[in-house]
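Quick one: structure for this chain?
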Amino acid sequence: MISIDFTHDPSRESWVDSANDPGSDFPIQNLPYAVFHTGDGDQRIGIGIGNQIIDLRYLAEQGLLLDEFVSPCRSDVLNELMALSGPQRIQLRQLLSKLLVRSTDADQVLMKAGLRSQDSVEFCVPCRIQDYTDFYASIFHATNVGSMFRPNNPLLPNYKHIPIGYHGRASSVVISGTEVIRPIGQKAPAEEGGLPTRSPAVLLDYELEVGFFVAQGNELGSTIPIDKAEEHLFGMCLVNDWSARDLQKWEYQPLGPFLAKSFATTVSPWVVTMEALAPFRAAEYHRPEGDPKPLDYLTSDENSSKGGVDIQLKVSLSSQQMREKGLPAEHLSQTRFTNMYWTIAQILTHHASNGCNLQPGDLMASGTVSGPSRDQRGSMLELTWNGDANNPTPGTDRTPLRLPTGEERKFLADGDELILSGFCENSEYRRIGFGQCRGTVQPARR
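Got it. Here's what it folds into:
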């Protein structure tokens, strides 16, 4: 597990004044990575500091970085940097912190020439994602969904023994702000024995998730032991795994999600490193008495005491009518990543446990993050209980969401913008954030 060092000192300030604002997502204690361009298509790696982004290629060209970091920081994606060893990643973070601290001896005039306003750049998917795996790691989400379709048996027997996941579509992972086209697909027959239909998805949904990127990988045929898993974790981001529930209902048996998921997955531009998250590690989810203990390969003392990450997550929705009237986005729910039944280390270890070769830049997502109460649910499916006022499940609130304009939502309408945000905060360290993950639904293209 990564140790706390001077870069986490809450009294540390930057010569970039906006980074010292208590409400900033990107104080000097954070230093998240992103990939951006200024309109010419020339992608560069940057570090978020306040409301600015500093160009790492520029720092390398000015001789401000050590030789071993020049090539990774001159790249147009994060993969080479992700492949650095843990000690190297810590060394680079410490170097960048020293360059950006208020009392730095570095030439600030030289440094300032590498700054860009975040509002003046366009962000890109932060790395070359060759593989993407989505999991189902929230027991509250799994129980809610299972209760809708299997009221007497919401969780299948394997759920508490292995992290459940499926292989997603890496090519349709898109950056925050990318418009999401409503998919068209097959739906179940209206009556038993009838024929399926094909039309635009009606039950379009979002899923509030957290993603993490693989650092150094493993060779094909080898594994990653649980006590080494943290060395293979680079950083985390926000993920919206858009879902077409009516398509999913027809296709998910017997093999699982396919076209209902592969049309788009939105990621936030900022990758908050595991080094930055060190002060916000937490114990793994406390399993109720009677739940089985994970098998030995998924168990370690370190994972038990610090395998969790305490991220607070929020979801808001802005309809087209709301934006036209100048109304703020409507808060839908808020939850914590500590509600996850499986930790990110357990997910990574299980993924590699059969000898699957993970690679730098591979993306894994947590699955929908939900908590025990209605205001902590991470999808419309749960918030409106499948939009079904006649669902017999007892004790559930199936009220449609009502927006300030009087509009109602059971699922997403064209023009709706979803905004995910996240941050870490406690009394001992500086608050750090993940920025936002945004996407707006556009009509289907027939």
